[in-house]
Write a structure and sequence with these properties.
single chain; 128 residues; mainly beta; 7-stranded mixed sheet; 4-stranded antiparallel sheet; 11 strands; 48% strand
């Protein structure tokens, strides 16, 4: 089990940047695949990005590719989501999640059911 706490959300103008952090507790953080999801009002939670347990592979939703970057620091037990060129349609609550799987990331990471632990979320609002 790992507990997750997101931070870094806020209000930003379109074209701006934010960096989200997800701090984990638990001794085995480095063994988890980590993902970011988001949920806008009235919509389903959707996949944003994922990173392998070692940090050597990443996977992105097409809607954020080339704008967002996921990274992790296993020593600090933290995963990050750097968001650049933000758009109003990026407005959502952002959640980090942990999957107890040690394999290369790919399409499987887009499924919410693959994740065992979730944070409470942090709100990102992008104004036009």
């Amino acid at each position: 089990q790992v507990q997750l706490v997101e931070s870094g959300g806020g209000l930003v103008q379109a074209g701006g940047s934010l960096r989200l952090s997800c701090a984990a507790s638990g001794r085995t953080f480095s063994m988890y695949t980590m993902g970011w999801f988001r949920q806008a009002p009235g919509k389903e939670r959707e996949f944003v990005a994922a990173i392998s347990w070692s940090g050597d592979s990443t996977y992105y939703a097409d809607s954020v590719k080339d704008r967002f970057t996921i990274s992790r620091d296993n020593a600090k037990k933290t995963v990050y989501l750097q968001m650049n060129s933000l758009k109003p349609e990026d407005t959502a609550a952002y959640y980090c999640a942990a999957a107890d799987r040690r394999q290369r990331v790919g399409y499987w990471t887009t499924a919410r059911t693959m994740y065992d632990n979730w944070g409470q979320g942090t709100q990102v609002t992008v104004s036009s």
